[in-house]
Write a structure and sequence with these properties.
Blueprint (H helix, E strand, L loop, with lengths): L11 E2 L2 E3 L2 E3 L6 E6 L4 E7 L3 H17 L7 H17 L1 H12 L3 H25 L3 E4 L7 E9 L2 E5 L5 H14 L3 E5 L6 H13 L7 E3 L4 H10 L5 E5 L2 H12 L5 E4 L5 E4 L5 H13 L11 E5 H15 L20 H17 L26 E3 L7 H4 L6 E7 L2 H9 L3 E2 L2 E4 L3 H10 L6 E2 L14 E2 L2 E2 L4 H6 L2 E9 L18
Parallel strand pairs: 1-5, 8-9, 8-11, 9-10, 11-12, 13-14, 13-18, 14-16, 15-16, 18-19
Antiparallel strand pairs: 2-3, 4-5, 6-7, 7-22, 12-21, 17-20
Bound molecules: NADP nicotinamide-adenine-dinucleotide phosphate and magnesium ion (MG).
NADP nicotinamide-adenine-dinucleotide phosphate binds next to α7 and α8.
Length: about 525
């Protein structure tokens, strides 16, 4: 098997992983994936069909029902997960380069966040496998003399479907907790960005000695492969990260077999700047909270709610500093903002910006594709950081998720009004409060209907803390202890420890004659 290291002109040989074997699609079909920075094709990717999804699910089923993985101790599984951490580290250069070339963003983000972020997920869930009990004794039962205990058991086959914005980290969020808890996994990355997950699976397969079928990664269209992963009766749980629209579909499909689902969906988060905030730090925080990875982050704070007394000063700080964000070659470590994931994503952003111009007015900065990019870059995949001010929260650009570098600045008078505006959204994923008065900030945070609130900060997600959404931003939480236990069943075992019929007095509820 030849794997061409990314970085040259060669088109690499990317394979899927099913049942411990690297393979192509049964049909032999492939699809092309592009490097948004240059607009050039970088690889042909196996295009799985329904039959390949079924093959992967059956391999995972067999590995769960007949293989050693679910029966291994937590410590044994933790050791395997730590080997994965090591292998990702050993291939950090290839993985971060392919993450950037296939999905846009910057090499800085890939090296400092994506690769270490994936490692941290595997490390955290290794710790969970080691430390979380698999049996817990219950005491204090008022019933007949008995011993009662809980057993935590793996669920079985867990499928995962992920979006294109953080392919490696998203893959690790689905694979690591599933494997740590003793499940087997089938993962489908997004079609725009399949390469890093395929490459990681390949490295794991070659270097980690997992039993075959424990990890399966297949690439192909969501409409066929993703739907099979959500609906197949052999799958015990499905975890999805992506748009709210597809999340609804996943939930419908999973309902046929009453499969538990975890959904991490869209957002339109508010970053509230109170009038006592340190404006210098808050302005940097709002820009970081919005424009990191070009706003292609589900919990981006794309609505900045700014209190009237500081509004004008704050807006000019934002506009001035946004203009200093450097767009350029994503493989250059100095670049702040690389390309968005695709030309079609830039076109979506352009449509929203046109709608903003119509409904709100001219943006104070940005609003177009950049001029003066270095030669060889595809301008059609880039977009300037764009800020609309005096936005009405009812405007389309303030209500709908754009998934691009567009910030809406919205004025407010009182803390109550800020909370009402923040909560006036179908979403509830993230949010921020910028203030020098922590009591005040915590009151505002408590009133926000959202899964995460950062006070005087933004975007900090780490595997130790749960992440997920209120309202149409999703169901359930990933990460943390909570994100481990959703990959486990709970079984209650009751042992009658009494002797003779007297300890079974309740049988007479049926009949005294039995
Ligand atoms: P998407 O269109 O919903 O796609 C996500 C994944 O679902 C892709 O792998 C896609 O496959 C697959 N898919 C598409 N249609 C499907 C179907 N009918 N059944 C099963 N799977 C299907 O989302 P995206 O455009 O990739 O990502 C952007 C969205 O993800 C944004 O809304 C963002 O907020 C959300 N997001 C949320 C979080 C979070 O944690 N809450 C994190 C990141 C992103 P194809 O690629 O083959 O179409
Ligand atoms: Mg690509």
């Amino acid at each position: 098997m030849s794997l061409t290291t990314p970085g040259g002109d060669t088109v690499a040989d990317y394979k899927m992983l099913i049942g411990g074997e690297l393979c192509d699609a049964t049909s032999g079909e492939t699809f092309e994936t592009f490097e948004p920075a240059t607009g050039e094709k970088i690889a042909d990717v196996p295009k799985a069909g329904k039959e390949d999804a079924v093959r992967a699910i059956e391999a995972a089923r067999k590995a769960f029902d007949e293989g050693p993985w679910p029966k291994m101790s937590g410590k044994e599984r933790a050791d395997k997960l730590r080997k994965i951490v090591e292998v990702i580290g050993a291939h950090a250069a290839e993985l971060s380069e392919i993450e950037t070339r296939d999905g846009g963003g910057t090499i800085r983000k890939a090296q400092l966040a994506d690769v270490p972020g994936a490692q941290q997920s595997f490390e955290w869930f290794a710790k969970m496998a080691e430390e979380q009990p698999t049996e817990v004794e219950l005491t204090g039962s008022p019933l007949p003399p008995s011993e009662n205990y809980l057993r935590y058991e793996p669920l079985g086959v867990c499928s995962g479907v992920i979006p294109w914005n953080f392919p490696l980290i998203m893959a690790s969020w689905k694979i690591a907790p599933a494997l740590a808890a003793g499940n087997t996994s089938v993962l489908k990355p997004a079609s725009f960005t399949s390469l890093s997950a395929l490459l990681m699976a390949q490295f794991i397969n070659e270097e980690c000695d997992l039993p075959p079928g424990v990890l399966n990664v297949i690439s192909g269209p969501g409409g066929t492969v993703g739907e099979e992963l959500a609906s197949n009766p052999l799958v015990d749980k499905t975890a999805f990260t992506g748009s709210t629209e597809v999340g609804r579909r996943i939930m419908q499909l999973a309902s046929a077999t009453v499969k538990p689902v975890t959904l991490e969906l869209g957002g339109k988060s508010a970053n509230i700047v109170l009038d006592d905030a340190d404006l210098d730090v808050a302005a940097a925080g709002v820009l970081w909270g919005t424009f990191m990875h070009g706003g292609q982050v589900c919990e981006s704070g794309t609505r900045a709610l700014v209190q009237r007394g500081i509004y004008d000063e704050f807006v000019s700080l934002l506009a001035d500093r946004a203009g200093k964000i450097q767009l350029g070659n994503p493989l250059d470590f100095e670049t702040d903002l690389g390309p968005l994931v695709s030309r079609s994503q830039v076109q979506t952003v352009e449509r929203y910006v046109a709608s903003g111009r119509e409904e709100v007015g001219e943006p104070v900065t940005g609003g177009a594709k950049p001029e003066g990019l270095p030669a060889g870059l595809d301008r059609d995949c880039f977009f300037q950081p764009t800020i609309f001010t005096d936005v009405d929260n009812e405007a389309k650009i303030a209500q709908e998720e754009i998934f691009g570098p567009v910030l809406c600045v919205i004025p407010f008078e009182t803390d109550e009004e800020a909370v009402a505006l923040a909560n006036d959204s179908i979403y509830g994923l993230g949010g921020g409060v910028q203030s020098s008065n922590l009591d005040r900030a915590k009151k505002v945070a408590a009133a926000m209907r959202t899964g995460t609130v950062w006070i005087n900060d933004y975007h900090l997600i780490s595997p130790e803390r749960p992440f997920g959404g209120y309202k149409q931003s999703g169901i359930g939480r990933e990460l943390g202890t909570f994100g481990y236990n959703i990959y486990r069943q709970v079984k209650h075992v009751h042992v009658n420890t009494g002797e003779g019929r007297d300890t079974h007095f309740h049988y007479q509820l049926l009949s005294a004659n039995i």
